[in-house]
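Human: For the file, kindly provide a plain-text protein record giving the amino acid sequence and the C-alpha cells, at your earliest convenience.
Assistant:
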Amino acid sequence: MERKKVLGLVAVGGALAAIGYLMREQITTATIDIWAGLTGKKGPFAQKYAAAWAQTSKRLPLEMLLPQAALESSWGTSRIATSFNNLHGRKGAGTAGTSAPGSAVELDPNTGKYVTVTGTTWAVYPSWVEAIEDQQAFLLNPKNRYLNPYYNAKKKPPEQAAGLKNVTTVRDAWRSIVAAGYATDNTEKYVRSTASVANGLRLNPDAPLRVA
C-alpha cells in the first residue's frame, strides 16, 4: 500500500496497528483505493469506521457493521453521530452510562408511514471504537433477542428470526436481526438497502459469519 494511503487512514482516527490488521486480514488495497476515490463523505467515513472497528474485539465482521452504520448515521453526519459518536442509532445509555434526549423517525407498522417519535434517549459514547464495541455486545447479548431464534409476533406479518448464532452469512445476519425487531423497516427492504451500501464499498454482503 502506498504510504500516503496508510497515513490518510491514520489521519482519520485509526492506529497504525489497526491499519496493519485491515491490510492483512480484511481490507485489500484495491478496496481502499475505491474508498479513497469516493466523493464526499463516504470514503472518509468508511476509512475511519474500518480503522475504529479494527481496534475492537471484532466479534462481528466489518462487512456486517460498516454498511449498517453508514445508513444509520447518514455516513457519520447525523446529529447523534457528530454529537454523541452514536453510529448505530443506539438508544439508552452508552458505555460510560451517559445519554442525551432527542427524537427519532420510525416506521409505523400500522400505517406504513414514517413518524417522528419524541422522548427518545440516545446513547452517548466517548469514541467510535467504544460505539462499535458496544454495538457488537448489544447484538450478541443473549438477554436480547438477536443472538438466539426469536419469533416476532409484533411484525406485520409476524416473522421468525433465525438468531445470529445460527446464520452463516452477513446477509442472513441482517435479515435475522431485523426480523427480530432491530429496525422498524420491512426486513427485505432493509437487507437490500444494506447490501447495496456494502456492494458500493466493495464489501461482500455474503461474507461468512460465525458467532462462537
